[in-house]
Every structure is written in C-alpha cells, then in structure tokens.
C-alpha cells in the first residue's frame, strides 16, 4: 500500500513526513554551516549529558550501571551500554497523525531519521502527550529514541537486589523487564526492547513514495 493510500484510509502520511524531514535536514545543515561554534557547543552538551556522578553503594553481586528516567508517571532504568546520548532539547519532532500509538514522531539525528517512541503503550497505558528529553538507544548505533519526561541520573544497582516483575504484567511485557528495584523503578531489558517489533517502522524512500 502506498503512502497516498494510507493517508486516504486514515493511516500515517509517510510521504509528507519524509518531505518535512528533508526540510529539517536542509535547515540543520544550513544552521551548522553558518554557526560551527554552536554546533560544537551542542555536541559538547550531548557528550556531557551522561556524565553525572554515579551513586555508589556498598553492595554485593554484579552491578548494573543504569540511566534512570521517568516517563508517563512511571520510573524506568536502562543500562548505560544501550544509551548512546540524551537529547535534552530535540530540535524538532514531527508527529504522524494516524501512526501506531508507540510512535511519538520522527526526528533527525546526525542526518539520519530516528523514530521517537513511547514506552507506556507497551505496558498497557495511554501514551502521554507532554514533551521532554529523548534517550537515543541502540547496541552501538542509534536505533530508537525513547521519549522521557525527565532524565534523572546515572546510578549503580546490584542485579541481585532486583525484584521479579509483578504478576500483573502480561507475558510479552515481562520479557521487556529485567526486574523492579525496591524503589519501584522498572529496569528494562535492553536486548528485548531493541528486538520488539512494535517499536520499528519502515522509513524507506520506497515505503513513503
């Protein structure tokens, strides 16, 4: 089905979104060319975004280094090895009316299209409509952006202190959770999250034509 057919049927207008992304890319390139000092400043800010001091505790067992963030009235944490950077102020997020609920919108990261998604729908809750920072995640290169309300800190947590996921979670949701901290933070399973097909979308030129 073409982008035009989907638009008529109430689905996402992929062609329009792709055109807006091209315009954003051109504007971003022009801005960086005109002000290289500002570009360097932004890169430095992104590099510092994960450089907060770690909370160290006397604990036994393997330690997890986690980025703690809040989204949709729920606290989450994800291992830092999956978090490549934090966009404190995404330049532009392009929404797609009619898109699947987890897909918040599209943005550009270093000239590449990045899908920004919400975690709440994966756990059976409505997606919030607020804006906030975006965690860029992937095993070695950017694959997804996770929208957050706030990014709290980088912290250490002993794996053997995690509680089992609550029985109220369905089987699919439980695969996304390594455990729950005693403070009620959902520690996400990075590999499972990045392998969840609900968070990946086809943005190819052929798909949006």
From TrEMBL:
InterPro entries attached here? CheW, CheW-like_dom_sf, CheW-lke_dom
Listed GO CC annotations: cytosol
Which superkingdom does the taxonomy of this entry point to? Answer: Bacteria
Q: Name one GO biological process term.
A: signal transduction
Q: Which protein, by its recorded name, is this?
A: CheW-like domain-containing protein
Q: Could you tell me which residue ranges the CheW-like domain spans?
A: 63-209
SUPFAM superfamilies on file:
CheW-like
